[in-house]
Amino acid sequence: MSDTATDENVKVRRIQTAPGIHDILPKDHEYHTFIKKVVRHRARQAGFTRITTPVLEFTEVFKRGVGEHTDVVEKEMYTFEDRSGRSMTLKPEGTAGVIRSYLQHGMGSWPAPVELYYIEPHFRYDRPQKGRYRMFWQFGFEVIGEDDPALDVQMIQMAFKIFEDLGLKDIFELQINNIGTLKSRSQYKEALINYYIGKERSLCEACQDRLHKNPLRLLDCKEEDCSILSELAPKFEAYRSKEDKEHHEKVKEFLEELNIPFKENDRLVRGLDYYTQTVWEFWDKSTGGQNAVGGGGRYDGLVEIMGGTETPAVGFACGIDRLIMHMKQNNLLPPSKDNIHVLVAQLGDLAKKKCLRIIEALRDRGVKTVGSMGKASIKSQLKLANKHQVPYALILGSTEVREGSIIIRDMKKGQQRHVAMDNVVEEIVKLIGEDNLDKYTPGEVSLGSSD
RNA sequence: GUGGGUGUAGCUCAGUUGGUUAGAGCGCUAGGUUGUGGCCCUGGAGGCCGUGGGUUCAAAUCCCAUCACUCACCCCA
Fold it and tell me: Which nucleotide's C1' sits nearest to the alpha carbon of A16?
């Protein structure tokens, strides 16, 4: 018999989170809560409804949706076999799953366009770094079923509104490009391949591989030789169809109409295969493109790739962890609602019993209240009140119980007075102020058919 | 996947050319006469010095390996 587990001398090794995967502690949740609130608010205003697709999908969803030869699929997916031997993947991005769902549930018959948003964790098996995690949070928007350039611009505007709400409006710059339709793009791809043929030896290893799998990616390689070659490579400009040009001009025109500053960047390609026409990224002005905070684009071909009929769509996604990073760097604090109004201190068993009721009454009225039931001395209870930075403490001892009164202590002034036990809740409300109460109500349910 | 940096208390870090029982500040906790917080004072808990091996009379300290964290490249959120 082994008694290792019960041997008191054996120290149990503590388990940590897996690499690149982090807890969100209460302090950081104030940021998360705030950002989610902003996103929900802006989404609701614009008629978007929320969708949650599974964290785990069949690997084919992403292989097909994102593109077999993208970096995301080739080297960054969290893929494993489940017990039945099917290849499963934790979602590396949001769009492919949304489109899978769109088709699975026949959303093509919903009134077009279908406007959806999500706030979800995502996974990429990358080497962790500042602002880059293996599990990270993204929110994103998708508009499926219409191809007007105005929608591209409205997506961008939505992102701007959200950045503005977060106090980050001025620290990002918008980079845009137009990569054309699938057709004009494939002509361009051919031209690129022709250009690079015979020059393979000057390319880095990765680019030699890219040349036939995904030639567009040659353009944003940062290896010196590759970038020299790409400078001289044929420009997409020449292969843009009339339709592409019109689309692009309209986008720029609309952006100007909304006073949204942008930078044209003909090297911007995006790492996911499904994009067409307009693509964009938001870059940190100080560090440039190495840590984009969000990006998006039009993906008119994706629904078809996923097995549906030809359907235009546009969307964007944004990294919540990176937004938080930027808020912190700019000393922007989210509004906190975790402050406590009152701590109730008790002395003796009888008082403790009474306190349970008082605490309940205070909370029901919207007063944020904590008890100090586990502590014996009044001293340690008031110390706790101090640590919570509560403005008021209630003190109930055996004398007060006998008299039917309770002490209200103003922690800032250090003054206290007795009030009748029956009046204490309203007295506290007066002190805190009706407006500061936590009176959130979830809304009321109503009768009706669920479809 | 490639390269750099760092691992000592819950946190931030000292720890001399190898030499007693490994330290500080903050935090936590308990006291400083009856039932009263913050400031101050005193005490306490909390460490296999990341892990394994090697050198040595002796290792937190030197060597090797390994793991973890972190930053950068690639790419992206």
Answer: B68
In Å, what is the separation between the CA of A382 and the C1' of B17? 52
Find all residues with CB under 8 Å of A117, minimum gap 6, and list them: A39, A43, A48, A49, A50, A51, A139, A140, A141, A142
Contact A342, A368 (CB under 8 A): yes
Residue–nucleotide distance: A78 CA to B7 C1' (Å): 28
Å separating the CA of residue A317 from the C1' of nucleotide B3: 31
Q: How far is the CA of A384 from the C1' of B21 (A)?
A: 36
CA A265 to chain centre: 26
**B29 C1' to A440 CA distance, Å:** 36
**Number of neighbouring beta carbons within 10 Å of residue A157:** 17
Nucleotide nearest to A322 (CA to C1'): B77
Using a 7 Å cut-off to protein CB atoms, list the covered nucleotides of chain B.
1-3, 28-32, 35-38, 48, 68-77
- Which nucleotide is nearest, taking the CA of residue A416 and each C1'? B36
Question: Domain coordinates of chain A in residue numbers?
Answer: 26-181+241-329, 342-436
Give me the count of residues in chain A.
451
A342-436 placed in CATH 3.40.50.800: yes
* CATH topology assigned to domain A26-181+241-329: BirA Bifunctional Protein; domain 2 (3.30.930)
Q: Are A260 and A175 in contact (CB under 8 A)?
A: no
- pLDDT by residue for chain A (451 residues), tens digit each? 333 333 444 567 778 888 899 999 998 999 999 999 999 999 999 999 999 999 999 999 999 999 888 889 988 999 999 999 999 999 999 999 999 999 999 999 999 999 999 999 999 998 899 999 999 999 999 999 999 999 999 999 999 999 999 999 899 999 999 999 888 888 888 888 888 888 888 887 777 877 877 788 787 777 777 778 888 888 888 889 999 999 999 999 999 999 999 999 888 888 788 899 999 999 988 776 567 999 999 999 999 999 999 999 999 999 999 999 999 989 899 998 899 999 999 998 899 999 999 999 999 999 999 999 887 799 999 999 999 999 999 999 999 999 999 999 999 999 999 999 999 999 999 999 999 999 887 888 889 887 7
